[in-house]
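anyone seen this seq b4? input:
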Amino acid sequence: MSSARGQAAQSGQEYGSYQQGSGYEMAPQEARHAGRRSSPGSIAGSALAGILMIVGGTIAFLDGLAMVIKGGFFTFNSGYVYHWSTHGWGWTHLIVGAVIVAAGLCVLLGMVWARAVGVFLAAGAAVVSFLTIPFYPIWSIILVAMYVFIIWALIARRRTA
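predicted toks r here
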């Protein structure tokens, strides 16, 4: 072997069509994702989901605050199967709203775990909004639809550029 060939092989330079590596191969999952970037649509979808989580969490928090402070304002059908006092629903909304706002901020910061937590919290918030339909029916249905959209935006398949 000539000295030129030996130097090229030792320095990692290309020789012919073969490139001498540094001795470490890429793991299959790293090789699969190497060079891929998030598409603008996936970034916008995540940002919209984060913003809607913050808005929805704030609304839930304020609804809960109103139920705790002025529980007599809300009227409901006493024959409804899921009967709970406005005070109890108010504290539930306060806690769920604050946690959703925090998760929405984490989604906007790009934390991967926050997307999974966001799906779980949005599903729970949709159930809570559904159960409070007797107190404010139209607004509860709007919140359920918004939480379903948040779930879709967080779990939608992300295409790469």
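Residues 44-70+84-155 form one domain. Residues 40-69 form the longest helix (30 residues). kinda curious what u guys think
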